[in-house]
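New here. Invent one.

***
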Amino acid sequence: MGPIGTGKSAFIDCAVGRPDTGAGHDLVSCTKEIRAVRYPHPDGERNIVLVDMPGFDDTFVSDTQVLRNIAEWLKTTYKRKVLLSGLLYFHRISDNRMAGTPLRNLNMFKELCGRDNFKNVVLVTTMWDEVLEDVGLQREKELQSEFWKTMIRLGSTTRRFHLTEESAWEIINTISASLPEERRPLLIQQEMVDEHKPLHKTSAGKTVLRSITAIFSSMKGFFRRSRVVQDRASSPPRRLRLSRSYSSSTISTHTSQSSSLMTKGSYSSSSRPTHTSQSSSHSYRDALGGVITTLKLAHSVAEFVRIHCLKEAIVPSLSIAHAIEVIAPAKFAIHKRNELLPQGIAEPHHELLRLVENAALLIGVITERAQEVRLTMEMKTAISGFAKDLKHADGIVQDMARRSSGTGANLQDTDLRTLTSCAESMRHACAVLRPKLSPDNRPALFRVDVGLAGVIAALHDYNLARCDVSTELMSH
């Protein structure tokens, strides 16, 4: 086991003396990510099976699926009473620091094995031909004295792999040839089979979820900053006019609160944006990137924890975000054309981004909550409600993307009502979720509520403006 690119497959190929020999016999069928190779031991008395496990990648999105593949293989083999004699953990000595993916892989490996199995672990360093000997030696000592210290204290050993058959077998032979009845299951095997825990409740599963939760926390700050940039770079400030169907006091309160959260003067009618369309384009791309990242993380958690209602909300949100990627360039290409809308009224293109941005932040908060405790039926119903509206909104946005135009002229009155209804249903979900959250998550939910109030007001204002323009055209 170990990160991608550390030489695991090369190790097996060197050991068996030929390239990919495929899966061995009498073992669970291998997936395309897991390769089991049976080979006779040089002593001529026994066979060994080397299992090449997939490495965790640089993205958290794939980590959950990789862990699921590994866990399912280990679970199935354990049920068939097949236990491992030992584990080889690979690390590139050419890496100049232990951070990010390598550290995440190591922590995952520890939780997957369990401390009782550390004595059966060989920590293998690779890529020695890519570093000077003294540099490699210094890094090796650092690994042994810091990152691998606990494992070595509990019985793990360290070895160097030099890309030769002899080197591979020297490492394999350090594994004790214990009898099958003396072998111990890994921690994740005990948890999933003996204790009947779902994967996300295992020690390894919790490690993945903690990592994703940390990313969600950082994304909250990103959304807060990106909104300030969007407001500065957006179209001229909009007039806020309210219809009878909305509470004037509620919307005006949220709008004033939103102004206090954003940069002072974001909605001031006395100021004009000074950013160019190029800077606007950059702010849109940055915001979209954050939205898409958050939604992909949430989707991996929803798959991992098996939260169907959350997936229903994530899928159309991701679809909308990707469609905006198509719409946005067209929007900026026509930025300077004459428009029928009066100056001071923002087009709904900007509000589409804000709508899906709020959806991403809300989904992120719900995802964090779902990792801690089970969602209540009331919460699931609220999530399903805005998921249904998001699906309708997705249809509208996809139609805009097909026309490759971000102009408001593409939107009909029914479209605007659908988008407004979507924002309202998300605000309802905020109201349902708020009492259930920890104080740390409530500010993010408040920002969602405030942002959606602004979206509702802007869409309604835009609809009124269209009516005014239509009346004027008819009079002419």
Notes: The beta strands are 35-40, 47-52, 87-92, 121-126, 157-160. The two ends are 74 Å apart (CA to CA).
